[in-house]
Known about the structure:
Mean pLDDT: 97
Structural class: alpha+beta
Number of domains: 1
Order of helices and strands: EHEEEEEHE
Low-confidence stretches: none
Largest sheet: 5 strands, mixed
InterPro entries: RlpA-like_sf
Strand order of the largest sheet: 6-1-3-2-7
Number of strands: 7
Distance between the termini: 13 Å
Radius of gyration: 13 Å
Shape: globular
CATH architecture: Beta Barrel
CATH topology: Barwin-like endoglucanases
Amino acid sequence: MQHAWPNTSDACWAITHPDTCGFNLSRRTCGFQHRTTNLCSGVSVVTSIADCGPQTDLFCGERSCCGSTCATDRIIDLTPAAYSKIASLSTGLRPCSIDAA
């Protein structure tokens, strides 16, 4: 299972600009593992960084909710296979927490 992370290198940071949304994310390179937990269901998946992304600065303030549980901003991009482990692909976005695995 894989995901994209917006601070894999200086070149990646220059494209994604997570600082625009107020994030000072740790530099993590390909292979580093994160655990992403769907805050709506509690289901989690462990994935490895495989790419740079998403372009975080384009999604500042974007909000995703399920009931009264909400989160803003997009800072990780899971592959469809990884996302389908924690939510239906038809939901598109879910509030999640992200931790080192």
